[in-house]
UniProtKB/TrEMBL annotation:
Name by which UniProt lists this protein: Nucleotidyltransferase family protein
rRNA-binding as UniProt keyword: no
Organism field: Nonlabens dokdonensis (strain DSM 17205 / KCTC 12402 / DSW-6) (Donghaeana dokdonensis)
Keywords per UniProt: ATP-binding, Magnesium, Metal-binding, Nucleotide-binding, Nucleotidyltransferase, Transferase
Nucleotidyltransferase listed as a keyword: yes
Amino acid sequence: MEYKVSTLAAFGSVLREDFNDTSDIDFAIDFNETDPIKYANLYFELKQKLEELFKRKIDLIELRAVKNKFFKEELDKNKVTIYGL
């Protein structure tokens, strides 16, 4: 895959009835890349492409960067995996 995505999941208002024309879209993502420079490039390139595709603001969080236990529990409970595991 061009962006080396291993996991892509949606969460937040995009999955609820309160999603509207002004809502952003929240995605949680992980890449098959370990080089920090390449990883950062993939992150920003994919974020830009998703914003062009959906024509709205995208919030992209890295799954491996989620350290807050309570946020991680909520994310795991509510996310919908679009691609990957």
